[in-house]
Amino acid sequence: MRQIIESRYLRRDLLENLCRKKWGEKGWKFNWVSSQEAWVFDVPEELTEEELNQCKGD
After folding, report:
1. Which of 12, 30, 33, 43 gets the highest tally of CB atoms within 10 A of its CB?
2. CA–CA distance, 43 with 32 (Å, rounded to integer)
3. Which range of residues forms the domain containing residue 38?
């Protein structure tokens, strides 16, 4: 697991969809916690930088 705090760049819905595609409906789900500054995502190591970049919003 690796933590990503750049949540203003990552969209939770896109990340969820990507995980669902890769691991299925009952597969791996990432965790997130809200803090005052940002969302913190725990994402699996298996996701590549390229895949994470696809989850970036505006």
Report:
1. 43
2. 9
3. 2-53
User: Domain for residue 46, yes or no?
Assistant: yes
Residues written for the chain = 58
In this prediction, residue 47 carries a pLDDT of 84
Please tell me the total count of domains within the chain: 1
* Inter-residue contact 31 to 41 (CB < 8 Å): yes
Residue 45: how many CB atoms within 10 A of its CB?
A: 7
| 19 lies in some domain | yes
Beta strands per DSSP E along 1-58: 2-4, 31-34, 39-43
pTM for the predicted model, two decimal places: 0.61
Q: 3-state class of 40 per DSSP? A: strand
